[in-house]
Amino acid sequence: MDVIDAHDTAPAQQAYAAFTLHAPDGGRFAFPPARTVALAAMLRHAACQALPPGSRNAESGLFVAGHVDGPKLQPRISYLPLPDIAGRSDGLVRHVMLAAPEQRCGQLRAVAELLDGVMLRNNQRRPVARIKPAAADDPVVAAYLQRPAGECVLASATPVVLPGCDERRTDKALKLFTRCLDQAGIPAGLILAVRFVEQSPWPGAQGAAAYERPEHCRRFTCRHVHLYCRDLPAGPIVLGAGRFRGLGLMACGIKKGVRYL
Q1: Residue that is last in its domain, among 118, 142, 166
Q2: What's the DSSP call for residue 149?
Q3: In a shared domain, residues 42 and 134
Q4: What is the pLDDT of residues 136-181, one digit of tens each?
Q5: How distant, in Å, are the alpha carbons of 50, 71, 76 from that of 236?
């Protein structure tokens, strides 16, 4: 267990929009969590295609598509497949979420409205799943939003990609993880301790090495993480170099009275 020392400030909040996934014929649908990145890419592509032609410009290219032509920390959407840790609790993906900084809530809402009922397609243009808005009280979505008052424990539902290679050194891993917190707008002073683990505690989760990664992340270290923290806001928390593609998704370690950590 390692501790990160830093100052306290208010953490950044995330706006979000959540959807359920349905098979093209209207039946049940579930996606393997290890292929989170592939599903996130389909969702991102659908969002880009849904934009009206007149609104496709440099700003939308950055916010929606993530096309970076300037500072890499500019606001953009994270496309987040949600492993089921609170409904059927089998770890399969039946929900997706779009998340963005709170100050871009209006833009995010506009993109979410365009995606209502859209069909996700793979690289061969074959239909994979249709997305529909999730219910306000959906337990799977709520599992990634809720925070108890005061101190809590978060565990990765999908592994965190550190922004570099830690060379199997804990000190280097901590430095890289501090960068993850900074990139996500989370003050390191709110993180009481960090623990890198081989396996996530969530049902159906796999070891970090089993998860596909974006091409630019393949040489980076990928770890499951437990965070002992305090005063984090409700809302999605996603960390690391894969945070825009569904990797590094965190959830509170106590659900329905069952302590996972």
Answers
A1: 142
A2: S
A3: yes
A4: 999 999 999 987 777 889 999 999 999 999 998 999 999 999 999 9
A5: 24, 23, 14
